[in-house]
Each structure stands twice: as structure tokens, then as C-alpha cells.
Specification:
231 residues; Rossmann fold; 10 helices
Amino acid sequence: MNGALFCSRSMDACSAGLLAMKRPVLIVFDLDGTLTDSYELGHLLFKEVFRRLGFGEISDEMADSFNGPSSDEVCRIMGIEDRKAEYNALIDEVETELVRKMGKIYPGVIEMLETLAPHAHLSILTNGSSAYCETCIEHYGFAPYIGLSAGFTSGVSKAMRIGMWERELGVRRVIVVGDRSTDISNARAANACAIGVTFGMGSREELLGADVLCDNAQQVTQACMRVIAEI
């Protein structure tokens, strides 16, 4: 998905149990295509939003192309920079409706988070809006495991946000888990270990720059635990 405003679960807002124990590793998860199986949801989202904006029925290819880029990019492509506030409000409204109606996560995701939470700080970093991110955390039951989360903000890259969290937590290693080449490039920019998931929206070829490729949540767990064991 894509979003408008940055929102981070601050250290004060996090569960005391999650952050009280010193953990040397931060794991940063992308959301769509990594934790949530949101391809169909995203497809319907952009078709409905642009219908309400008066564009009629946009093509399937165009709808799919918007699943990942930020709201700044989508509004620029569609020539509606002056309607960004209206676009963002519609995104939040329709995304919330669709998550609650048809949202789903990949098999094994909750078990993965349960296994990793005692060993690392877990976070979500997405190009979706803050409202979408929080809706997903609540709807899918991620809250007991996720200490920090952030949506898109203009001028703050994912790599920059990862660096801020790294300094805030004082961790010794960062792992980034995602399904697109941008997740891998942001991991590299943040000097983090890059794990690419092949079950999301990115192809294996797109993810070849990752340190490791994983075909399911269990493999992600194993890859993360190997990094943690090296600390």
C-alpha cells in the first residue's frame, strides 16, 4: 500500500515487556507482501480510490503498479499533487474497510513473531499510511510482538528510519525483511542484513541482492535466528 503521514510507535508507547529486556538485534519487517498477503486487497484498493476520485475504471496493470510506491509517487504519476490530502483520506478509508473485510496474513507469520520476539526488537516499516499500519497491527494480532512501527513520510527514507531506531534502541545488528528490491536497497543503505521473501510481490530475480532468500515464514525465522546467534 502507500501512505501519507509518518507515525511511529514511540518508545514510551511500546509495551514495557517488549522493551524492558535488552536485545542486541532489531528486525524490521516490511508489511505488504512480507507479513500480509495483500495483493488482491491492494488491487481493489486503487481501483476503488481512483473511481471515487473520478478517474473511472483504471486498468489492472495500473492498479497493481501502485502497490508499493509512496503516496507522493502515485499522486505525481496521476497528476493529482494538489489533491493529495483527498487521495490520502480515501486511501485510509478504503484500506481500513478492506483490511477488516478481506485482510489475511501469510501462513506461519504469528508463529514467526512469537519465536523471534524474545530475542529481538520487532518492528514494522511500510510505505503504507500510519492509519493502515495501525489497523493491520490491531486486526492481525501483531500488537504483542511489534514494539515500533512507522508509515510513510515525505523526506524520510526507510534507511533513515532504520538508523533512527538503531540508535534509539542501541542494538548491535539490524535485519531487514522484505519482498521488494527497495527493501533490499534500504537494508544496504542502513548497513543491515537483508532477507528477501519470495512469497510476496517481488520476483526472485528482483531479490537476488539479498543476503538470503526465504520461501516461507519458517525459513525467515531460521535465517533471523542464525544472525542472532552470531551476536
